[in-house]
Design a protein that fits this description.
With 257 residues, this protein is of the alpha/beta class. It is built from ten helices and eight strands.
Length: 257
C-alpha cells in the first residue's frame, strides 16, 4: 500500500472489511441476521422486531442484501421503528420458508406467525435476486400485502467480478478504471424485468441499480474516501447510509409525501 496514491491508500481498511467492527454494526449477524452457522434461537425478536406499542412500523425482510440495507433504512427513517429479519443466502420468498435450516425457520416464523399478527405500514423485500426468483415474487408480494399497507421491493444491486476495493487498486496499477468490463452484465436486465413484475403484483419498486449507477454502467464507486461496496456487491456502512437516504427520497417523490 505504500506505493499506492493517498486516495487509494484509504481503501486499505476495506480489504479485510469482513473482520471490522463496522460489519457487526451494519448487519447485526447472529442477532437479527442469521447465517448458516447460527441456530434459529439466535434470532432475538425482542431486539429485531418493533414493539407492539410502535405505531406504523417498517420491516426489512431479506438475505444479506436486506441486512446491509437495514442500517441505512433505519437511520433514514429515525421517526419509525424499522424491524429486521434477514437470513444469509435466502431471498425473501414464501418458497424459502420451512424446516431444515435456521434461515428457513426464520422465514417461516416471519411469514406464517409474525406478519399475520402484526400490521406493518411498510414491508421492504430485499435480496440478491436471481432470475429463478422472479416466478415466486408475485405470490410473495400478494401474501405480504395482506399484512402491510405497502410492500416495497428493492431491486438487484450492481455487482462486480471481484471485490471492488481490490479491483480499484489493481486497475490503478494498470492505469485503468473499474468500468463496465468488471460489472456483472445480468443485473440491469434483471432490474428492468423485476420492475414490471413487482408493480404488476401491487408492490412499489425501487431500483437500487438506478440509485448506484444512474440506470447505466457508470456506477458510483467512492463516497469521499470510502468505497460504496466492500466486496462484489455488499454495501459498506457509509454506502448503506447513502442508499437508505436515496430510497427514502425516491419513495417520498413517488408517493407524494
Amino acid at each position: 500500500m505504500s506505493r499506492v496514491p493517498a486516495e487509494f491508500a484509504s481503501l486499505s481498511p476495506y480489504l479485510d472489511y469482513n473482520r471490522s467492527a463496522e460489519i457487526k454494526f451494519l448487519f447485526r449477524e447472529g442477532v437479527c441476521q442469521l447465517a448458516p452457522r447460527n441456530v434459529y434461537s439466535d434470532y432475538d425478536a425482542s431486539q429485531c422486531l418493533p414493539d407492539l406499542a410502535e405505531a406504523d412500523p417498517f420491516l426489512v425482510v431479506g438475505d444479506s442484501y436486506g441486512g446491509h440495507l437495514w442500517r441505512g433504512l433505519s437511520e433514514a427513517y429515525p421517526e419509525r421503528a424499522v424491524g429486521q429479519a434477514t437470513a444469509v443466502g435466502h431471498r425473501p420468498l414464501l418458497e424459502h420458508r420451512g424446516a431444515g435450516t435456521p434461515c428457513r425457520e426464520l422465514y417461516r416464523f416471519i411469514f406464517d406467525v409474525h406478519l399475520p399478527n402484526r400490521r406493518y405500514e411498510t414491508v421492504f423485500l430485499a435480496g440478491r435476486w436471481q432470475q429463478p426468483d422472479l416466478a415466486g415474487l408475485p405470490s410473495t408480494i400478494r401474501y405480504v400485502r395482506r399484512f402491510a399497507d405497502r410492500v416495497v421491493v428493492l431491486g438487484p444491486m450492481n455487482e462486480y467480478e471481484g471485490d471492488l476495493p481490490k479491483l480499484m487498486i489493481r486497475a490503478w496499477g494498470r492505469g485503468e478504471k473499474v468500468g463496465e468490463a468488471f460489472q456483472k452484465p445480468d443485473r440491469l436486465p434483471l432490474d428492468r424485468q423485476m420492475k414490471s413484475i413487482c408493480e404488476g403484483a401491487g408492490a412499489v419498486y425501487v431500483s437500487l441499480y438506478e440509485i448506484v449507477c444512474g440506470g447505466g454502467p457508470g456506477c458510483v464507486q467512492m463516497l469521499g474516501e470510502t468505497p460504496v461496496q466492500y466486496d462484489f456487491g455488499h454495501l459498506t456502512l457509509k454506502g448503506s447510509r447513502w442508499v437508505g437516504v436515496e430510497i427514502r427520497s425516491r419513495l417520498e417523490t413517488r408517493l407524494g409525501r
